Amino acid sequence: xxxxxxKPLEEILEMIKDRxxxxxxxxxxxxxxxxxxxxxxxxxxxxxLRIARKKAGLPPTIDERTLERQCDPxxxxxxxxxxEGYDAIISIACGVGPQFVSxxxxxxxxxxxxxxxxxxxxxxxxxxxxxxxxxxxxxxxNFGGLCPIARCSKSxxxxxxxxxxxxxxxxxxxxxxxxxxxxxKMEKMGRLQELAQVWPVKNWSxxxxxxxxxxxxxxxxx
Amino acid sequence: MRLQYPSSVRVIQLPCxxxxxxxxxxxxxxxxxxxxxxxxxxxxxxxxxTGNFKARRKVNYVKKVxxxxxxxxxxxxxxxxxxxxxxxxxxxxxxxxxKIKELGPSPxxxxxxx
Lengths: 222, 114
Prior knowledge:
The structure holds two protein chains of two kinds. By secondary structure, chain A is an alpha/beta fold. Helix content of chain A is 25%, strand content 22%. In chain A, the strands form three sheets. Chain A has a four-stranded parallel β-sheet, sandwiched between helices. The model of chain A has no long low-confidence stretch (mean pLDDT 97). By secondary structure, chain B is mainly alpha-helical. In chain B, 46% of the residues lie in helices and 9% in strands.
């Protein structure tokens, strides 16, 4: 899933200052699963903003709505009759949401209510970890199912580096050295010898380095 | 045991303090409550094991939200007491009410009245 973090309240309050009618817009996709932008979080943010408005003696016109997904035009279309009635829409979907909403409703000010942080998964309830950097050329099967691109601080293909100590990365004692994990896993699988292979410099053109990406499925395209 | 506690305290019953959510606490403030407290079971005595610990974490979250909004975080608290501790329930109700009276009415009410 795409994981995000709520923006500081002060930042959101500044965004909607002098904008009386506001819609907090959630998404039932990834951000619902990572507890940052679903229906529940829409309720919490909208209530918080209404408290702020009431405290300031302002009319608390903060509405709530959650779309099935904000990354599909058919769901964004559901706002057609109401979007222009708002002075601001705070999208708490990933970065795709505010862009799709503002593309569809160009006269409405759309603000991002969360910071999109990474592609990852739940490590335990309430904890998420990064697992993918969408480099566009998945190679995890060569490394015991662990991604050195997303999980090594230097994205080393031929690790570990000298900064690996006591299973941890030198950047923080909180960060596992993925190369330590890779070696351990490959050893357990009896595949350690495979790591003798030296990987050439990675072709990053399939990643962000190749510019913004687009995927076309000719068979689905209309 | 005819214990008295302030009539301003409105009790909302839940099956476990772990059912309390951030939104419930915030809604109370939005609707004009001057203070909100959660009375959960004694730590280690939760029938559902960790409900009261979860409630405390949610209360702490709401404290941070209130602080960010410029509202005294002391307006929301978590207390632990056993269901057999009637006198403690009444004491907590009196003490918390006294503390809230000291803080004064919710700043939301003051702003609305102005």
